[in-house]
Structure formats: structure tokens, C-alpha cells
Amino acid sequence: MSARIIDGKAFAADIRGRVAEYVTRLKADHGLVPGLAVVLVGEDPASQVYVRNKGAQTLEAGMKSVEHKLAADTPEEDILTLVDKLNDDPEIHGILVQLPLPAHVDEEKVINRITPAKDVDGFHILNVGLLGTGQKSMVPCTPLGCLMMLRDHHGSLSGLDAVVVGRSNIVGKPMAQLLLRDSCTVTIAHSRTKDLAEVCRRADILVAAVGRPEMIPGDWVKPGATVIDVGINRVPHPEKDGKTRLVGDVEFASASQVAGAITPVPGGVGPMTIACLLANTLTACCRANGLPEPEGLTA
Ligand code: GUN
Description:
The protein is of the alpha/beta class. The chain contains 10 helices and 11 strands. It has helices spanning 8-30, 45-60, 76-88, 107-111, 125-132, 141-154, 172-181, 196-201, 252-258, 270-288, and strands spanning 4-5, 35-41, 64-70, 94-97, 161-165, 185-189, 205-208, 226-229, 233-236, 244-247, 261-262. A hairpin with a 7-residue loop joins strand 9 and strand 10. Helix 1 (8-30) runs parallel beside helix 10 (270-288) and helix 6 (141-154) runs parallel beside helix 7. The longest helix has 23 residues, at 8-30. Bound molecules: guanine.
């Protein structure tokens, strides 16, 4: 049996289209333009690509996009001062500080300086607490994208066994909270989990977010399960010398023979992250102005 391939690229394009439509109405009816500020410190090439893509897609959705590129040796105090300025700027509804930050900067201090209502990454300690207690919050973009794909495929997730492999603050932990909120029975597994293969085989929903190329083979997947592969790992190309290719945390060739549905890499979860960032910026703008939240674009 061959799994249904969940097309994250098409899904993300649909979300961006819905965000853009809503933004057009916000402008026409209320004279409002959602604004997203991205702060990039240093020259990390992968981060530069992400930030460029974020900026382009923000503009395409009809929003205001502001980028602050700071030198790698910028003092922490200057970054905090910039965050304060963005917090006070009424034209900015979302603030994203690209991670990782250079070693001399305290990441938690910077993230927790962002006004929680503008924290479109959902990383501020207040948003983490709100999510953990089932209250309205800003929800981290990658888990939000995964949740949207799962709800779209399953309808209700109630009662399903979900296993999240990976316990990061950015993906694993918030993903588990969201699945719990949708009434899954949730297990968080990680590198020290005993009998990881057995734990994975119990999953109706298997979310892989460990950052280890093709670590989860097809025989760890329960027949018919839905597999969400968050991993984006660059590895040497097996046939082309000197070239690389992207693979997930799941061995796609074998897992797609067993799963009921699976996200590919690339073209699965990846494109959903920026789409959800735009959705969160729109949500933040609506909340800031006392307007109803856009339907189907929040958790
Ligand atoms: N670096 C890698 N992923 C992310 C993300 O989702 N948000 C931020 N701020 N930085 C990242």
C-alpha cells in the first residue's frame, strides 16, 4: 500500500491566499495593514535564506515587512533596545527574532522582551504558559502548520495515539500541547527513550522532529498511520559527487509504503512554517484592533 502524500506546498499556498484575502478586507474596511518585523543578528547563511523568504512572502500577502539586520557582534543591550522600539511601534503587529542568536546574547532574555501579543513565534514564556494551560495564545508556527495538516486529513483527532519524537521548545513540546488540546493521547519520545521503535509503532499520528536524517525507518511506522516529518537535513547526494539533497527525519521510501499519509521533505511541513507566520501576524493584528480572528488560521 502506498501512502497519501500530504502536499504542504499546496496547503501553504492556500493559507497564504486566505491570509492575503483577509488582509485586503482589513485594508478596505478598517484601513489596517498588518506589519511583521524580523530581526536577524549575524550572517548565518540558512537564517539569511529564511529571512529573505519571510520578507518576500509577507509583502506578497499585502502586509508590511520590516527587516533589521544587525552585525554578529551587536551588544545584547542594543538588540533589547531594538525590541523595545518595535514593541512600541503601532504599525508592527508581529516581531520575530531569528534564532539562533550569537553566543554572547541571552536568547531567552531577548525573546521574553517581546510584547507577548506581538510574539508571532509563540516563544515568549507567557505564550508557552497560555498554550500549556489551554488558553488563547500565540502558537509556534511549525507545530501550528502540522496541526492544520493533521486536522485537514483526519477531521477530528480525538482519541488518537500521537507520538512526538523530539522535545525541543520550538517544535516537540508545543506540538505535544496542541495534540493534547485536540484530545489525542500524547507521548513525547526523544533520544533517551527506551524501545523507541516500539513506542513509534503505537502511533496513529507520528511527528518526527529530532533533526537526524532518516532516523525513523518504515518498520517503526504503524500501518495506516499519519506521519508528519518536521526534519530538514542536508546530506551528501548518494549518486552525485559533491552534491547534497534534503531528507527528513523519516526514511520516506520505506515509510510511505506503510503509512496511510505522510508529508514529504521537501514540500511538506517546510512551506507551512512561513504560511503560519503570516497567519499569526494577521491574528495578532486582528487581536490588537479588537477585530474577530480569521477563521481556520489559528489553533
Ligand atoms: N530558527 C529556526 N526556526 C525558527 C523559527 O521558527 N523562529 C525563529 N525565530 N527562529 C528560527
